[in-house]
Amino acid sequence: MRITRPILLVLLLSATALAKPEVAKAVKLPLPGGEGGIGFDDLMFSPTLHRVLAPAGRTGKLDLIDPKTQKVDAISGFSTETEKFGGGHGEGTTSADVGGGFIFASDRSRTEVEIVDPRTSKIVGNAKLAGGPDYVRWVEPVNEVWVTEPGKKQIETFALDKTKPGKLVHKGAIDVPGGPESLVIDATRGRAYTHTWADASVAIDLVTHKEVARWNNGCKASRGIALDEKRGLLFVGCDEGKAIALDVTHDGKQLGSAVTGKGVDIIAYSAGLAHLYVPGGDSATLTILGVSPAGKLDVLGSVAVAVDSHCVAADDIGHAYVCDPKQGALLVVTDPYPTYH
Known about the structure:
4-stranded antiparallel sheet, 28 strands, Methylamine Dehydrogenase, Chain H, single chain
């Protein structure tokens, strides 16, 4: 059948309108010593160093990844485990953050937080912890380091010693009944946010170290946390396979939610793209969500990753880094979706 030009043009335009964005794929990035598997937990992007921080568990290394080249630099000196990965994330370093001219990283085997000089890539100090560490966060407004200790139901706090660079001084502990799970700092509002293991998110004053609010977050089992500090949006990842946006400026009001893959743990947010990344360790998927200024969450697409890919970090040039514990690697996903408005 002969098709006239006007009809052909209509068909082509229709096909273009129905065309889906390029499907994102995960590219494997092996980490040093990861052949036996790595018990990953927290991943983070540091704007200060312009590196992705990947605490690599049993390998005894904190890996720093250059987003532009994907080059991996490893900082050694953390506890190592010679046995192959057997599940979980109980050995070595599993969380890190940057501030005050140093990198602060957990060592679960030693029950310590280690202090690293990024100029020399050497551990220059440490502080003993009261309980097993989970998240480590630098709190810029008060020049403190906070370490969550779920077994103790508390956040232990330290200050940088002004007379001895590279030394931490113990300050105290913040009780978090039912938690703490995850931790993010809101410098604009002088608060930190964490979750209980059930259905609540908790706001803590950075100066007084007191709980100032507790909101129902809509989860059955709260896990991951992320923040759009400018917009005042707190994101919650629910283990059952859901993401929720809360308004921290209006008593934790629930603004949006979206269904994701199951087995959600660590989540990440790109403020530049207004995209939320939610990996599902059970579903072996990474769900990419668009976040509107009003906090509405829309599913943009899903990427196949690996079973137990439960953690993610996002850099500032459009990559998401998803952990692959069994392979001891990161799966790098180039986000194919445009900035969400």
